[in-house]
Amino acid sequence: MRNTGRTRLLAMVSALVLLAVLLAGCASGGTATTPTPTPTATPTATPPADTTPAADDTSDAGAAVENQPAGAIADIQARGKIRIAVFADKAPFGYLDESGQNAGFDIVIAKRVVKDLLGDENAVEWVHVEPANRVDYLESDKVDLVFANFTVTKERAEKVDFALPYMKVALGVVSPDSSPINDVAELAGKQLIVIKGTTAETYFTNEHPEIELLKFDEISEAFQALTDGRGAGLAQDNTFLFAWANQNPGYTVGVGSLGNQDTIAPAVRKGNTELLEWLNAELKTLGDERFIHKAYDEALAPVYGDVVNPEDLVVEGGVL
Amino acid sequence: MRSSGFEVLLSLNNLRRLMLGLCGTLEIAVVSVAVSVVLGVFCGFAMMSKNRAVYGLFRVYLEAFRIVPILVWLFLFFFGSAIAFGANLEGWFVSVLVFSLWGTAEMGDLVRGTVLSIPAHQWQSAEALGLTPWQVRRFVIIPQALRRIAPSAINLVTRMIKTTSLVVFVGVTDILRVGKQIIEFNMMKNPMASFWIYAFIFIVYFILCYPISKFSKRLEAKWER
Lengths: 320, 225
Fold this sequence. Notes:
heterodimer, A: D-Maltodextrin-Binding Protein, domain 2, 5-stranded mixed sheet, 12 helices, B: mainly alpha, 0% strand, flat
């Protein structure tokens, strides 16, 4: 009895050791999976010196910084790093490229903001968020800033403070070139494909009850249905449709802008006026140098090509 | 659109990222399973306590983790603790904490149930033979309990491994999240990528969980003798 007991114990101990080894193997690789894949080039020492002129450029916000030395911006500068919530799976706005680096339209603009705030565009900790938890991340103070294609809505504005918008979106309808839909009126009596839970579904249900909707759960399913010819057209955010139509010859976004125009803006924690004012001043400065257009050229133009007019998307200096 | 999409799995970079994601999954699973097994035994014995207050306390703890979805617990510790107490806990730490608490509660209940399922005459006969209370547990009860607990304990472990896919909601990067990122990156030019990535993740989870249940089968057979 003693003997078998011992072998059993031995077996258990060795199993535990095996687990420990496995874990140790992971620990070395695992560190790379933390939300900062960007190799940060020792920013801590330099930023404060570089930052002062940047903050002074944006005159009124600069003054605010001086009045409250222990404010939100000072905290970020003391930390040497700003925490920004971004998407990691919404190409081309916020995604990870082949090598796992953050990229996209939101990221290009966010990097510039970081550079102007801390003097180094790598002085940032990218926090990957899901659409549903963006508000929570701000409310629980886990990020300083949200730059995750955040559509401004009344409900959200009660919980977070939106800065000036840098982008606008509306609904669009894509249809095959063989039977194009160029006006919503042409859809009467036909089937329109929508994705459940999107603004497109809500809009057509409320505003155009005469149009029959064919609803799908996933984006990929919906587009498959369109290519299979199961609907006359597909309604979705126009930006996304432009990109898709550009990659799929034979389809055009016949209705380019429909419904309420929504804006997309960065957001800060409710009540963080200091950072909000600085950010608004920063966005105005960026507007003066037409930086959002540059970001468009860098991140969206390769995907959208010539089919999209940048003016339909880009908002400079928060002016619609 | 004609591409089969399989090439996403041939990219070394994609595979490396998926493997790093797998490490994220494994780290949380292994740490919390280890903690759960050790603490679960103590928890189980505590739940057998004749003291009604102690029993009641552990019962509430167990039921709380059974009834409230794990996702809610994750949010509670990740966002709730930050909003209520300003405690900014790391996503990784919150995941290990919640999974360990859950595992310990479930494991404790398994231990309690198993030990109680051992017929009273085993205790009595062992005591009659003059074994000390510790010897009764060490040589009579635990060996029998181990054999009985193996299937359900293994079941719990595989369930915990699979449930780790929830950690993406508290900002931890696991294999499923990496898969989604790769799919989304390839969405426009390679719509079939999702099929291959999910197939790959399916196989990885299978490779992870199948040997564990196989191992438990062998263990049972061996202890059956």
